[in-house]
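explain this.
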Amino acid sequence: MIKQRARSQAIFLRQLPVILSASLVLASCGDSGGESGAASDVAQVEANPLQVQQPVVREDEIQTAPPSLESPVEESAPTVEPSGIVSTEEVHPYRPDSPYADVLKRCVLVNTVEDSCTLDTLPFIGQGAAVPGINDILDRLLVTHDWMGDRLAEVLQAAPADLQVLFGSTTSILIGSEVRPAFYTGLNGGIQLDPDFLWQSLAEKRTVSIEEDYRSDYGRDLGFWFYRRHLIDGERAYEFFDLEDDSTRELDDLLIPVVRLLYHELAHANDYLPPTAMASLDNSLRVSEALDQILDQWLSPQLDALYPLNSETLHKLAQVRFRGIDASETEKALIAADVGLQFAEDGSASFYSYNTIREDLAVLFEATMMRLTFGLQSNIAFIDKIDESKDPGCEEYLVGWGVRNRLANPLVAQRAYWVVSQIYGANADFDQFMANNLGAEETMIEGVDWCTNNKPDTVQAARSRTGTNTGTVDAELDKNAERLRLRKERSELR
C-alpha cells in the first residue's frame, strides 16, 4: 500500500501544476550570524540547524542525520558487509562533460575560507539559471559511485517541480559512501547527502558505510525519548530498510524520504541565500564571504526575532541530545510529561528545532512542504525511557506528552507560513492551503502507548481508560519489524 500511494503521488505531482511555481519564478528573478559567519557555520549545522551563532548548516549540527531507511528484518537475517566503500576525497564529477567538471572537486573539498573558490569560478546554480533544471543540478554533482547520480536524477524526475528551484541557492551537491549525516555548509555553498537514502540494490547498498551517525549516543543520560511518526492517510508514509541485511527496494520506497531530506537540506541553503538576495552577490568574493555580505537577509535570524522559541529548558536539552553536551543533574531528572508541557507552549515542529535557529527554520520548511506535496502528517511524543534489555513491545512505551498533526498547531502553522513565504514568495493558493487544509492538532492520551496513540480510531476506546495500558494495536506485526520501527522513530536526528 505504501508503494501504491507513493506511485500515485509521484504521478499526481508530475501532472498537477505546482501550487508555488509562479511565485518561484518571480522569487528567483530578482544569525545574523552574530559573531560567526557563513564559513564558521559550515563546521556543523545538522542537516537541519538553529542558533544565530551558527550560519553554516551541517547535518550534524544543522542538518539532522538523515534517517536511516531500513526495513523489517529477522534477527537471523545475514549481515551484509560493505565492500565498495570509497573515501569522500575520491569523489568525481558525475558528468565528466559538465562545464564545471574541472573545478567542482577543487572547490568543494575545502577546509578553509582561503582554499575556497570565488563565485566567478563556481557560482551558485541560480546565478546561471533562474529556474534550475535537472541538467543544471546534475552538472554540479560529485559522487563516489555513478549509481548515486543515476538515482538522484530519477528522484528529481519523480519529485515535485518546486524542489528544483531550491537548488538555485547551492553551488554543488556531493553524494559519497562515507557521508553521514547529510549537511549544508556555507564554506562552499553546497550540500552533501547520505546515500543510505538512495540505494536500491544489494550491490548499491554494499557501497554505503554502515557506521552510525556520530550523534546517535548523545543524550544517553536524559530520562526521556522523543518519538516522531510520519503518516499519510493514517498509515506510515514509508517503511524502514536495513543497511546490514540482504533486502532491496524500489524507487517508490525511497521517494518520500529522499524528497523530505532534500527539502530540509535545501532549506538551509535558502536560509543563507534567499532567492531575492541572488542579485546582491559579489562574484569576486569567495562563497562564505559573499554570504556574509548579505547576512542581513538571512532568514533564520529573522524568524528567531519575529517568532522565537522561548523554552530555555528545551534549548539546553537539545544541546545535550543533538550536540553531546553533558546533562546537568536537573536535566537528567526531567520526565517526558515535564518536557512536553514546555514544548506545548512553543511553536516548535520538532524537538530537533531547538538545536539551532537554522534547524528550526529547516524543520518548519520540510514539514510544510511534505504536507503540501504528499499530505504527510507528523505525530510526535515525549516518552519516558524504559529498560529495553527484556525486549519490550510497543505497549510498554507510554506517552508522557504527545500530539497528532503537529503542523496544525496555530503557533507552528504561523511560523511555518512565514518561512515558506520567504523562500517561495507570496502565493494565494498556498495561503488557502494553510488556512483550510491543515486540520486540527489532536492531543495524545498520557499513559497510553505510542502505537495506540497513533491510531485515532483506537484512541476513543482508550480515552475511557486514561492512564492504563491498552496494549499495542500493532501486535500483529512481526516483533523484529516492530522493534526496528520503534528504534527508528526515535533515532531520526532532525
Notes: Residues 1-35, 42-77, 463-471, 473-477 have pLDDT under 50 and may be disordered. The beta strands are 92-93, 141-143, 172-175, 183-185, 190-193, 224-232, 235-236, 377-384, 399-404, 442-443. Residues 19 and 429 are 6 Å apart (CA to CA).
